[in-house]
Write a structure and sequence with these properties.
single chain, 219 residues, mainly alpha, Leucine-rich Repeat Variant, 2 domains, globular
């Protein structure tokens, strides 16, 4: 009970959870997956759907872990499933990031042509879909992938008034800066007069001190 109540303090939204630590949930998910990994991909995704339907955060984490575990079996039509999960089930930043960082990020690396679909997400009225359009690129960005698409999405989300969307695209750019720091830094300098401070701080968090000071200095 104590863990459950403390966990809820990290969210502005009403959430349902058992209160189990994420590390334990991940361990359970990996162990349970051994009993189903030999089944069909469709059967595994159906089980993931049932877990999402529960509305419990830990079960959504297991769904994401299982969906990521079959990344070697992804096919283009799986995008429709993942997109529906984002639209229908994601209701907080934790489930958004867990699904997008790994499952959708891995899908994009396998099928890079779908990156353009995420550009469409960035125009959504749903805050979680807009955040998803950015955080799905976190892991690919760290490999230097999708640079131009990432800048395009950042431009669309640049003036978004939602702080969780700002943090999402800021995190995306910070990840890209691990490979293209100079280009990301210049992007920030060119837009620092209008970029929300929340996003700006995320982008420059790991840059050298002198660059952080220059980016935060209003011209």
């Amino acid at each position: 009970m104590k863990k459950r109540e403390s966990g809820k303090r990290f969210f502005k939204e009403e959430i349902n959870l058992y209160g189990v630590k994420t590390a334990i949930v991940t361990k359970i998910a990996k162990q349970a997956f051994k009993s189903i990994e030999g089944g069909s991909k469709e059967g595994i995704l159906d089980l993931c759907e049932e877990l999402w339907n529960s509305g419990l955060m830990e079960e959504s984490f297991i769904a994401c872990e299982w969906a990521y575990s079959i990344r070697g079996r992804y096919s283009p039509d799986d995008f429709t499933v993942f997109e529906r999960w984002v639209n229908e089930y994601v209701r907080n930043w934790a489930s958004c990031d867990t699904l997008c960082n790994h499952t959708i990020g891995a899908f994009l690396e396998r099928y890079p042509g779908y990156a353009n679909r995420l550009k469409e997400w960035s125009h959504s009225q749903n805050r979680w879909v807009r955040r998803a359009s950015a955080v799905s690129f976190i892991l690919p960005a760290r490999k230097g992938l999708f640079k131009e698409r990432i800048f395009e999405i950042a431009n669309i989300l640049l003036l978004d008034s939602d702080d969780l969307v700002q943090k999402g695209y800021g995190w995306m750019l910070k990840s890209l800066a691990e490979v293209y720091e100079n280009e990301v830094f210049q992007y920030v300098l060119d837009r620092k007069s209008v970029m929300p401070r929340t996003a700006l701080r995320y982008v420059i968090e790991k840059m050298p001190e002198e660059r952080r000071h220059e980016a935060m200095r209003r011209g």
